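Continued from yesterday's entry.
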Amino acid sequence: LVCADVEAEMGSWVVELNGTVKALQRWMPQHFARQARYDTGLTFTQHLAASAASRMKQ
């Protein structure tokens, strides 16, 4: 994602990754429930990471 040349390329990678993550969530729901509890405590301090994180949550 960091190496994406344009925003559209980043968007297409995010869509692809989100599809994979959704399939894994159906396969391992307990793992993702535990991960979600952990993720609520994370804070992104770098602008690029915060931007990418917000796109991943969409």
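--- second protein ---
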Amino acid sequence: MRDRVTQAVYAFMEDHPTVVSLVFVVFLYVVLALVALVFETYEKRKKAAKRAREEEEKTSAESDKNK
């Protein structure tokens, strides 16, 4: 059973190289989009953490000044 499926897949790949290439390109595009999404999320979290840290320092400095 597995051999027949493998042979059918290989036969399809030989008969339709353009389809195989397009599927591969779409796969790479999806992987690239996921990597970009992860990177963008990382950058947003990094900026939010920096902003929170600066806000905390500002609040701390103001409370020290008021004492």
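DSSP finds two helices and no strands in the chain. The first helix runs from residue 2 to 15. Will compare against the first tomorrow.
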